[in-house]
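Structural prep section.
Before we set up the soaks we want a predicted structure of the protein with zinc ion in place, mainly to decide which crystallisation condition to try first. Input record follows.
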Amino acid sequence: MFITADGRKFDVYKDSVHDNLCMVAAEDKDYFVADPKLGFEGETVTSDGKTWTLAPLSHANAEKMRALYPWTAPSRVLDRDKTMGVGDRLGIATDGHLRVFKKYTEITPILSQQSIRELNLTNRTFADVIDSASFAVFRCGYTTGWGADGDHVKTAKEVAYALESGCTMITLDCSEQIDNTIEGLSKAEVFAKYKQNKELEDIYMNKSFDVGEGITISFDEELYKRTVLIYSEAIKHAIDIFFNLIMKNGKQVADFEVSIDETMTPTLPAQHFFVANELTRKGVRVSTVAPRFCGEFQKGIDYIGDLKQFAAEMKIHAAISRHFGYKISIHSGSDKFSIFPSAGRETKGRFHLKTAGTNWLEAMKLVAMKDPQLYREVHAYALTAFKAATAYYHVTTQLSRIPSLDTLKDSELPDLFKHNDSRQLIHITYGLILNEKNADGSYKFKDRLYKLWRKYREEYAELLYKHIGRHASEILMK
Ligand code: ZN
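Run finished without errors. Recording the tokens verbatim:
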């Protein structure tokens, strides 16, 4: 306990205690208690006859902390064998996530992992997202390194913003450069649309490539031409971004992932090979590539698709990634428990797994457990907001399968999170729920939700430890 001379009391986070700096908790928020010599901004207080700075968790103080304790800053970690992106949409989940990674020490976390869309929907900035992860890392004494991903950034401007804010990884989403119209064209149409390219033809057309492990990748004329038409612009975009932004004065400044997963159809192994080989030929160094796998990776629920086919295709994608020396990145990995064993096995334990949003669902489950009335209000609102939210997400949710709330006792509300339809209902409406306002301009739910999450933060950390911990243990095949 830290008690000031004027009688204010704060709990001390024991894992945060260092010589001249620690973190303490008041009821509504956390502070640093810093030796005044460290120069943290804040209020001067005395305790036991000694003078301290009671310092808010501000951006300026985050910078000071990171200078003193470099492990509280994100760094490039994608070259480690096992990495997992968790993201902390609400800025409150990292303590729970770190319990997982303190246990499963072979996995290194990407604690910050936000897309521009998520930043907009939560009114946050990359700097704020990284600061809140840094504070949690300090609070929990997690000293072994972590990353910050500017996730699904699309343009040079977005990449530059993520890098300026301190992201140590860039996931370049090339979906806007991938031509989804080619898939539906006939062979004749593809041939008509294709423009001659002697250099590429000599390399790929009617050629085969041995990627090791007994796997051969072959391009007949049609597959070659289709692949060029679908992926050329995306490859060009990735090359531009890499050399203009990821490289600075001849030095690579961030880990680089190329994501081609947001397409209409699964990425064929040959197409994955083509993208990787072209990037390699041009000198682009990627840490990870995210192909689009077969089956469906809907938000917040298990994999939908043929598990055998997934395993067979994963084997080839993983072999291609090993051939070029990067890792496969699996997106929308939250709750995809049925594919984790084959993903762990076929990647031979070298993978990047991204989960996101499931920490929001656990936060809402906590609301259902602790404040049934508030949960009922949010749920009723989500039902009205669902249709608008489907503009952003592909889901197969059927609202009619969700039990009507008046038929459920309070104690049954947390069980809603066992069902895919109610999970997806709450999952995809998060931005609308957080932003909904009353007539007077105040937030309808947001402030009450954050107050509850603060009060029950220990319980929240335990929920995350169990749920995200299950992801870690299953992909490690433990
Ligand atoms: Zn993705």
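Observations: The chain has three domains: 2-68, 71-358+471-475, 364-469.
Flagged for discussion at group meeting.
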